[in-house]
Write a structure and sequence with these properties.
two-stranded antiparallel ribbon; TIM Barrel; 14 helices; 8-stranded parallel sheet; alpha/beta; single chain
Amino acid sequence: MKKLTPFGEIEIIDAHSHFFSRKYFEVLIGQSGNLSRLEDPISRVAEMTGWRMPPGDPVEFAGEWVEELDRHRVSAAVMMASVPPDETSIAAAVKACPERIIGALMFDPTKPDAEARARRAFDDLNIRVLCLFPAMHLYSVAESEAVRAIAALAAERKGKAIFIHCGVLSIGARKKLGLPSHFDMRFSNPLDICRLACEFPETGFIIPHFGAGMFREALMLADMCSNVYLDTSSSNAWIKYEASPVDLTAIFRRAIDVAGHQRLIFGTDSSFFPRGWNSQVFDAQVKILGDIGISNDQAVDIFSGNLKRLLSLT
């Protein structure tokens, strides 16, 4: 499947989206004393967020996402189960739609048996990307032996990668539900990944949102480690933290200058319905890349080719 763009008809694969299953909302409800005491907490969550709640069957929900991708002529999407206990939902979605949904999993390496759980995710559940949130789960990537073990597992398996969220972290669903977000930014520096990336050059590391406010550090990391990729997803509102006025066009230009277009991977950070796939992010980034003057071949790499090579997608 290809999508008509100013660069011609090209394949689009979204490298960053979220599979907000029914289990996802049940976990958040369980973290809220007020919501968990309600007779119908799911309906209350729908009222508080303005979102359409997913069906209980993750296969049915996967079908809704495939219809949405079809509507926008998107070939496939990396979809993240966005709470650690939700392996089964994304695994079911991937099994039902293996050509369209690429499995990713928020993973907490501080929990017991982290290496065994990572091995199961890669080998049994067909998860291609393990997603680490050090500021959320309160650990140092540079010092965690569990993270090192996970990176080693990815290095041994073709088409697997490690996603590490750096910089500022904001979870919209938690805010809407009034849940606390006790994140520790001390664990958000992309440079913490440097030793790990050097030790495991066969492992691909994805830094979302250009480092989410730690752009300079993300560029330094990418410049030193050729196995580090920057994903372009979300509104990139972190730009407001830059010391001097800058816009997303300048961010793209600088990222391409330092890392090269072969290590940029397009994403939207799409997550909930009724919004569905966030075409506004796509439209904005297509315009920016056109203004920069990238070639058609470079556009193909950014919007699908780089991710296909990283994850060995056919």
